[in-house]
Protein: Transporter
Amino acid sequence: HRCGCLTIWKRICPALKGVGYAICLLDIYMGMYYNTIIGWAVYYLFASFRSELPWTSCDNPWNTLNCTPVLALADNDTSSVSPAKEFFERSVLEQHRSDGLNRIGPIKWSLALCVMAVFILVYFSLWKGVRSTGKAVWITALAPYFVLIIL
Structure:
């Protein structure tokens, strides 16, 4: 007989059923955290289809004067920033539009759609339970090897 974390902690010790609720809450937070990171990876995937990768040069609209090409980063200049860091912080996350938690800035819809697509993929991979999850694992575990072989 299967049961979840809420039921098992209620059976072990009814006074500790809050541990089951805490586990469920942590699962929700961890799912949101990791799906957001995977959403960033999906955003990078779509950004990599350009003829020149946007995180390799300093002549993009989001770059600052401190942007230094990768080959020139060998100098010990503390104010220099790599184009990859500026792409992530200023183009992907748009941190320069935020003043911290008081004013977090506008929603970046392209990134929000990538994160939403990840949540939808996770939902449909878990929709029918453990059997469909096992099939999804076969695809997601073997896909990187096939891509590496193709490349």
About this structure: The mean pLDDT is 87. The first helix runs from residue 5 to 12.
